[in-house]
Design goal:
By secondary structure, this protein is α+β, with helices and mostly antiparallel strands. It has one domain: SH3 type barrels. The protein has one helix and five strands, in the order E-E-E-E-E-H. The protein has one helix at 60-73, and strands spanning 5-14, 21-26, 29-34, 46-50, 53-58. It has a five-stranded antiparallel beta sheet with strand order 3-2-1-4-5, with helices on one face. Strand 4 and strand 5 (53-58) form a beta hairpin.
């Protein structure tokens, strides 16, 4: 199954509007993510990521709820791949 997962923006690597990327933390896993679709996302913000692209921002409380649900369903293991 392909899910959109919340993650926390740790830093912005490339701030070019087209190739904007950053390191995003999903629990204990950190991945590079394209941030071009959410130019307003800043360090410390939570974003929803789908297939390597951040598609929207969300607040920390909502991100924690989604992580709790995914953990309950056993879906967080897929992030380690």
């Amino acid at each position: 199954m392909c899910l959109a997962i919340p993650g926390k923006v740790l830093d912005v690597i490339d701030d070019d509007p087209v190739t904007r990327t950053g390191r995003v933390q999903f629990g204990g896993i950190i991945k590079n993510v394209n941030l071009a679709c959410v130019p307003e996302a800043a360090i410390g913000d939570y974003v929803i990521v789908h297939v390597g692209f951040a598609i929207s921002r969300l607040d920390e409380e909502e991100a924690r709820r989604v992580f709790a649900y995914l953990d309950e369903l056993g879906e967080l293991d897929e992030l380690a791949v």
